[in-house]
Amino acid sequence: MNDVQTNDVQTVDFVVVGAGSAGCVMANRLSEDAGTSVLLLEAGHPDTAQEISIPAAFAKLFKSPLDWNYETEAQEHLDGRRLYWPRGKMLGGCSSINAMIYIRGHRRDYDAWAEAGNAGWGYDDVLPYFKRAEDNEDGESPYHGAGGPLHVENRRYTNPICDALVEGFETLGYPRNDDFNGETQEGVGRYQVTQKGGVRWSTAAGYLRPVLDRPNLEARTGAQVSRVVLEKGRATGVEVTQEGQTYTVHARRGVVLSAGAITSPHLLMLSGVGDRAELEAAGVTVLHELPGVGKNLQDHVFVPLVYETETPGLKDALSEEQMALYMSEQRGMLVSNIAETGGFMKTRPDLDAPDLQYHNGPALFVDHGFVEMDGYHFTLLPSLIKPASRGQIRLASADPAAAPLIEPNYLAERADMDVLIYGLELARNAVLAAPLDLHRRDEVLPGAGVTDRAGLEAHVRAHAMTIYHPVGTCKMGHDDMAVVDDTLKVRGLEGLWVVDASVMPEITRGNTNAPTIMIAEKAADLILGRPVAARASRQEAVSADD
User: Fold this and answer.
1) Alpha carbon of 62 to those of 67, 74, 88, 460: distances in Å?
2) Mind telling me the catalytic residues?
3) CA–CA dist 457, 462 (Å, integer)
4) Which of 85, 265, 316, 539 has the most CB atoms in a 10 Å sphere around its CB?
5) What are phi and psi of 246, to 5 degrees?
């Protein structure tokens, strides 16, 4: 690699911390200029495990060496449970372990960011970056891109139960939607996925691997960053531990934290950037006071509604027949992303955008798939996508090896419980509709006898779980709790940016991987001082979501 010394102190133009959904994008885009040297540091492993590439196998990665395997603090409003939070510990990060659903969010999400003072982050501003990233199987259109690094396709397998669930919602008056990322988000239908030819297409596959031969780019795995080096108000490098050795990398132009909504604020705090009282309590010397670091944590949460069925489902995905079909043609059950269909709707007519999403799967999905039962099942997962509750990430200690404290504060606001109860009741009505007659048998969870609000609330508190979408802990803005400005530079410091889901001031409505990739696409232009993409014209993409 150009301009990298071989001793214990190395120098590059940019250091990117974290080779996940955003970090792989940053490594690619920053190194497009042959004269700019980039070092990408990933604490996890290479992405060579077969379970990464086989779509339906992603749950097999949970609690494996390829998972950070985080756990929240006890959740007061969820029966005191400590919730499991999987996060990808490999190249591609969570794009190598997620359910591959390609959802951008609602126009209103981004327009609200802009209305809060974040110039250049409205829907018409970010749509060109979504399109730049995308290689959609259906081709280019006013809403979609073709030829970008991120391949998006129509999944090659869908179980009849999941299509029947779409029809069930249609009987209740919810329209079919063949493109949740197009003219309107509302409605029900099949999800498009980040796969290519039936194989997972992570950011490591789409953005990183094709450019690893660039002489000005290096990617290292097993490289744990312990802190950002700050000198006179500027980030000058990072301290790294790798194979038992600690070394320093100097960054001439700056450091980009793309380590995710848990680790990016954690690294800032370990580096002396954060709330003064909290840093001092943990024994960290305060170098730059920013009280918002780690605050504003938001996450989507869902709860399972489970039915028995006699229709074969993903329990058969590992059969000899299905394995042979996948290995020979990349088709069949192993192409499933489990949550095959779903949709977006409002729980109240006065809302300006959906607050409820569904993830429907032809399998038993309770406690992240760790619960097993005899027979076949299907699961609907009503999902809270506009939570009112806020939490935080805190330091456990000044030791970089100590996991941070995760306090999502789920369902602290009563309105969040209301959405999930509405979602359970609506899902039951959809399952009772005629299209499900061939597939529906007994309700397993919460059980047909649970009909009053108290019983449904008890079910939510006992079984609600993360949808794996933590965001917001280094929020973008200009108020006292903002961590980065609208160029994603850490406020009050030079040469330091945060580029990942942590910068979202408010969570987007839907799965957060595509928005994270978009953020990184735009951030590369901002950091390099390149002209930002031209806003989409209202004639090009006039959305019925308006």
Assistant:
1) 6, 20, 9, 22
2) 469
3) 9
4) 265
5) -110, 135
